[in-house]
Write a structure and sequence with these properties.
Blueprint: H1 2-21, H2 35-49, H3 60-75, H4 92-101, H5 103-106, H6 108-114, E1 123-129, E2 139-144, E3 150-155, H7 161-167, E4 172-175, E5 178-181, H8 182-202, E6 216-222, H9 224-238, E7 242-248, E8 254-255, H10 258-267, E9 268-273, H11 283-291, H12 302-316, H13 320-325, E10 336-337, E11 341-347, E12 361-366, H14 386-396
Parallel strand pairs: 3-6, 6-7, 7-9, 9-11
Antiparallel strand pairs: 1-2, 2-3, 4-5, 5-8, 8-10, 11-12
Helix pairs in contact: 1-2, 1-3, 4-14, 8-9, 9-10
């Protein structure tokens, strides 16, 4: 009960502190409030609440997780109208199809029910492996029987123990002009090999009477599968295949590399949902979170966070392999980035339920640096769920959004 009460009261107090920090754009009726005195009173009250046994301070981590999420909503008194980044307009149908396909890898029975309907009405499965092995994620290869030169490959994310073993093979390995996550690189090599074998078995000879029959390969992946799909796209393009990818919630697996990054930005579209922690989780962001109090939580939470995280650090500090996996190794690698051109899909702050039919969604392009901070919120884990991505993409109705910056008469 103490933890729940602390969380609720703390969330309310920290929300008020964020209002007190705002210098403009306050709701009507707040102009006359002495916020300096108001903030001091809240800080004194919160100090009294936290003068308890150190073990109970762990509950304040829940408060820290909710503060960023709450403060963003309180600061957005005026919202911009939703619009679609211009670069997404040509591929918006591809994104919709990809969001329908990513369910297949996790739930084959459900996937079989949606085959032949909606965006999947023209697909047939030509090869599939539902059981993952280390460095061999589950995948499905589909062929469009109306346009047999077009293939879609769905790669499942972390689901089985073997996938976890692939995830923790996190040391950087050389690829093209940079370094990437070893486990994801090996998975991409496996996927690229399976695609090439399948093409040899199923591809038809070109019909001289038809144009535009070059084989097209579209890869789709979520989480671990998203990283593998992105790197497999690069491998296929090196071999002169016409390959593109749409990935969801892919991890930060690319260490800065000019040529590789440019290739992925041209041919991989990466959708990140809300506060999803996986695309933001890497050595640098985790170390920054562990070593520095989060500004949005104010200095009041610094002591509590230090207590929790220093305890965690002391447990794993002497275990070098584990420390490296968790990003707590002081000899860590340079900052990693998510693959491809990344777009952040966020729920409007007037609604927060991904299943709400009236939900308004915003989508904006973000840089690697823009993904360089872990967002602590109640949705940081649930936003990574594959069904959350499906609901969000389908509920956003991206194809009906106006293009950002385009005059109304040109839409």
């Amino acid at each position: 009960k103490w933890s729940v009460s602390c969380w609720l009261l703390g969330a309310a107090l920290m929300g008020l502190l964020q209002v007190a920090d705002s210098s403009s754009g306050l709701p009507k009726g707040f102009e006359e409030v002495n916020f300096a005195h108001f903030k001091q009173s809240l800080m004194k009250l919160w100090g009294q609440l936290t003068q308890r046994d150190p073990a109970q301070l762990a509950s304040t981590l829940a408060l820290a997780m909710s503060t960023q999420h709450l403060s963003r909503g309180l600061r957005k008194w005026a919202r911009k109208e939703s619009c679609l980044p211009p670069d997404l307009r040509p591929i918006v149908n591809r994104i919709d199809t990809a969001s329908a396909l990513i369910q297949l890898g996790y739930d084959p029975s459900r996937g079989s029910n949606i085959m032949g309907a909606g965006p999947l009405q023209n697909f047939k499965i030509v090869r599939a492996s539902w059981d993952a092995k280390i460095f061999e994620p589950a995948y499905i290869i589909l062929q469009n029987f109306i346009k047999p030169h077009r293939y879609w490959i769905v790669i499942r994310g972390t689901y089985a123990v073997e996938d976890i073993l692939t995830d923790i093979a996190a040391e950087p390995e050389k690829f093209m002009d940079g370094h990437v996550h070893k486990g994801i690189l090996r998975s991409a090599e496996f996927i690229a090999g399976q695609i090439k074998e399948c093409l040899k078995e199923t591809i038809r000879k070109p019909d001289p009477g038809k144009k535009n029959q070059q084989t097209e390969i579209f890869l789709v992946g979520h989480s671990l599968g998203g990283g593998a799909a992105a790197l497999a796209t690069a491998m296929l393009r090196i071999d002169n295949h016409k390959a593109h990818a749409v990935v969801f919630g892919a991890p930060s697996c690319i260490h800065r590399a000019t040529y590789l990054v440019n290739m992925l930005e041209r041919h991989v579209t990466h959708i990140v949902l809300g506060d999803d922690i996986i695309p933001r989780l890497n050595n640098e962001t985790l170390s920054r979170l562990l070593e520095q109090p989060d500004n949005t939580a104010t200095e009041l939470l610094g002591a509590a966070k230090s207590f929790v995280f220093n305890s965690l650090r002391s447990v794993v500090a002497d275990n070098r392999p584990l420390a490296k996996i968790l990003g707590m190794d002081s000899s860590g690698t340079p900052m990693q980035c998510p693959p491809g051109r990344t777009y952040l899909l966020q729920a409007g702050h007037d609604h927060m339920d991904a299943g709400d039919r009236d939900q308004q969604w915003d989508i904006d392009e973000v840089t690697c640096e823009g993904m360089g901070k872990i967002v602590l919120s109640p949705r940081m884990l649930t936003d990574h769920n594959v069904q959350s991505y499906v609901n969000a993409v389908q509920g956003a109705f991206l194809r009906y959004l106006p293009v950002c910056g385009a005059p109304r008469n040109e839409l």
